[in-house]
């Protein structure tokens, strides 16, 4: 079982649904891209929140608030509930 290569050159472990079934490479890429975008958005918003409170330091509370503001609502979750398995 070869591990797919990360775009930056590091190896990543393949995510298995069961012992014999793995996510397709395309799905892994989509999930990785979504996660990367989410982390980037959280960090960007957290920095803006710290700046808004006139601080030059990013604090845990900035990250927590950013995550709570950016987490998907139940409306967004329900939008994708009709995706076939």
TrEMBL record:
GO terms, biological process: DNA-templated transcription initiation
Which superkingdom, per the lineage? Answer: Eukaryota
Q: Which GO terms describe its cellular component?
A: transcription factor TFIID complex
Q: Where is the Transcription initiation factor TFIID subunit domain?
A: 19-66
Task: Give one GO term, molecular function aspect.
Answer: protein heterodimerization activity
Protein name (record): Transcription initiation factor TFIID subunit 12 domain-containing protein
Question: Which species does the entry assign this protein to?
Answer: Euplotes crassus
């Amino acid at each position: 079982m070869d591990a797919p290569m990360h775009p930056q050159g590091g190896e990543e472990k393949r995510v298995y649904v069961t012992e014999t079934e793995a996510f397709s490479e395309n799905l892994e890429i989509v999930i990785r891209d979504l996660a990367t975008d989410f982390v980037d958005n959280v960090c960007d918003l957290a920095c803006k929140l710290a700046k808004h409170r006139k601080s030059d330091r990013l604090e845990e509370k900035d990250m927590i608030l950013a995550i709570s503001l950016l987490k998907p609502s139940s409306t967004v979750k329900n939008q994708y509930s009709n995706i076939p398995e």
